[in-house]
Amino acid sequence: xxxxxxRREESVALLRATVAGRRSALGPAHPxxxxxxxxxxxxxxxxxxxxxxGGALLTLPSECDRSLGPDHTVTLGARHNHAxxxxxxxxxxEADREIRRVTExxxxxxxxxxxxxxxxxxxxxxxxxxxxxMDEAIEVMTDVVARRERGLGPEHPFTVADRRLxxxxxxxx
Length: 173
Known about the structure:
This protein is an all-alpha fold. It has helices spanning 8-26, 31-43, 46-51, 60-68, 73-88, 92-110, 115-130, 134-152, 157-171.
């Protein structure tokens, strides 16, 4: 919430304190501890993801798999955030593999219209575009925009943002 108010540094500091407290009280493999660490993957700038916890955040999905299983909601969230971190680090092929796996699991679990599915598909389109697969990126984003319009309406901020990304792909920028 604080990050949405332009207070990202304060939000990250609070999240770090939350991780420390949960590790101490609940242990390192508790789902709430792992979830808080996964949130760091989403919140931190890419350069900090590599250095945070001595680089251990980049292995978080494997920890979640071992502790919670591959289809646990926390594991899927960690993988989604991991894919975003890899994308920001310019590791597009790795991000593509990770977000593809997450998207497939989300669709199996929640169906194709679920908001997290659409968020994952949006990131998947970004990885495809970054890898030079513009036709596929456009196809995926066209579907995401159509689903957002049906579910949220054409003026919802998520719909507008996704339409902007689609327009960017189509214009070749």
